[in-house]
Amino acid sequence: MQNNKYNQLFTLIRTTRDRNSFLNSLEKLSAEIFKEGKKQDIVADVYVDDINEFLTSEKLDKEDKNAVEKALSDIREEMENLKSINITLASYPNEEIINAMSSWLDKNMDEKVILNIDVDGRIGAGAVFNNGIFKDYSLNTQIEEAFKNKKSEILALIKN
Questions:
Q1: Any residues with CB less than 8 A from the CB of 12 and at least 6 apart, and which?
Q2: Which terminus of the chain has a lower count of CB atoms within 10 Å, N or C?
Q3: Rounded Cα gap, residues 111 and 3, in angstroms
Q4: How many Å separate Cα 139 from the centre of its chain?
Q5: pLDDT for 102-142, tens place per residue?
Q6: How many CA atoms lie within 13 A of 150 on its CB side?
Q7: What 3-state DSSP class applies to 144?
């Protein structure tokens, strides 16, 4: 993956679900900057500390509301422009599998690519990739192919 000033934040984003959560955090933080009066506590928000850490690393004057809002807008634009690959699985993967898939993409792609994970129990096992080119590595498809290619052998076994 190529070097980008946002890599520090990109490492947090593995899936479109992560990206949506991150963008929600950005919106909350942005709203708080211009809010008058008592500000709500957003410390518990998942990504706020990471965003603040990034802004600090950029040596941004946090008192300059316009500069902070511009930085948040730039981050938002970068996040919204991340490419994604569509993958359909039989069930939603655990964190270990998401991390492994995301790490593979980070190592093998020239730019940050995130996973857009869909779940369809009908595929049985395996995965279906669709990013302009459709690749079906599902167990269901393999079984269908086996039945199609070995139809006469299977029927002979059943009849005996």
A1: 18, 22, 47, 50
A2: C
A3: 9
A4: 24
A5: 999 999 888 899 999 999 888 777 778 877 666 776 667 76
A6: 10
A7: helix
| CB neighbour list of residue 54: distance below 8 Å, 6 or more residues apart | 6, 8, 9, 75
What confidence tens digit (pLDDT) does each residue in 11-42 have? 999 999 999 999 998 988 888 776 665 555 55
Beta strands in the chain (DSSP E): 83-89, 113-119, 127-130, 134-136
List the one residue out of 6, 9, 95, 98 whose CA is nearest residue 46. 9
Count of C-beta atoms within a 10 Å radius of residue 111: 13
The angle at the Cα of 76, spanning 70 to 82, to the nearest 5 degrees, equals: 140
CB 72 within 8 A of CB 30: yes
Whether the CA torsion 27, 32, 34, 38 is positive or negative: it is: positive
The two counts, helices (H) then strands (E), for the chain are: 7, 4
In this structure, what token pair is assigned to residue 13? Answer: 């984003």
Predicted TM-score of the model (pTM): 0.75
Output DSSP code: residue 40: P
